[in-house]
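Human: I would love a firmer grasp of how sequence relates to backbone shape in proteins. Take your time, and here it is.
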Amino acid sequence: MFGALYFILGLLVIPMFFIGASHGESPFPFGAWFPVVVPLFYGVAGYLLPVGAAWLYNVLAGWIGGIELVLDEKGPEAAA
């Protein structure tokens, strides 16, 4: 999901280069392939970074303890 969201975010970045370009200059700093590579880069980064963050959290939680969440299921009679 994050990969798809960041891919879309990468598509939204491309018009910013058109806005920032001076008249007569190429809007893309690295050539015509730039609008193709940026959304792909964002998509890959959007996938890998949350995976890495989840892995790091699990490693640190194993060392120092994580967040404990206790859910107690009670029926409607408990509210009365």
Notes: Residues 2-18+32-64 form one domain. Helices lie at 2-20, 34-64. The chain is about 60% helix and 0% strand.
